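F.,

This is the one I mentioned.
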């Protein structure tokens, strides 16, 4: 019996080759090409996905390491017909230019909002017991996701809008 991984709510058999990265498994084996391969060294954040709700760089981990875990990619957050709140806000605020980094940015921002709801502090937190979502807090928490086009101000505005809607 082969091990499985759940991707966007669907159980999938893990590849026989245990050397396959989670990123390559998603893109090449499952055809989920929303998650991007940027640097392939964990430095740019283009490959960010959620594993059991936590954000990770999928280029730095093997698919086999995530047996029996839930992976959520950009395709699992929303659809063109029913986008997530963050996906809508990114469009409304023009928080992308070329769009290459956008899937990783949105997955990371999804985790960021959950971290704030769970009151997890960061290095920029003003109050370690109950951090508030300041611009500095957003920048710190999103610092692992790079945008070559420089849409950072619009990304921040999109995240802030969704955070305020959730409040």
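My design for it:
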């Amino acid at each position: 019996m082969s091990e499985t991984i759940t991707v966007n709510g669907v159980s999938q058999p893990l590849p026989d080759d245990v050397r396959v990265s989670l990123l390559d498994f998603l893109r090449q084996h499952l055809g989920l090409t929303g998650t991007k391969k940027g640097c392939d060294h964990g430095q740019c954040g283009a490959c960010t996905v959620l594993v059991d709700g936590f954000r990770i760089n999928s280029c730095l981990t093997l698919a086999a390491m995530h047996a029996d875990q839930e992976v959520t990619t950009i395709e699992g957050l929303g659809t063109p017909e029913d986008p997530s709140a963050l996906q809508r806000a990114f469009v409304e605020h023009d928080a992308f230019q070329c769009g290459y980094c956008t899937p990783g940015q949105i997955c990371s921002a999804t985790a960021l909002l959950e971290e704030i709801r769970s009151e997890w502090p960061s290095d920029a937190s003003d109050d370690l017991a109950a951090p508030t979502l300041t611009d500095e807090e957003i920048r710190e928490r999103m610092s692992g996701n790079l945008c070559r086009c420089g849409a950072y101000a619009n990304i921040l505005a999109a995240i802030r809008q969704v955070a305020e809607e959730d409040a």
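The chain has two domains: 4-77, 85-166.

Talk soon.
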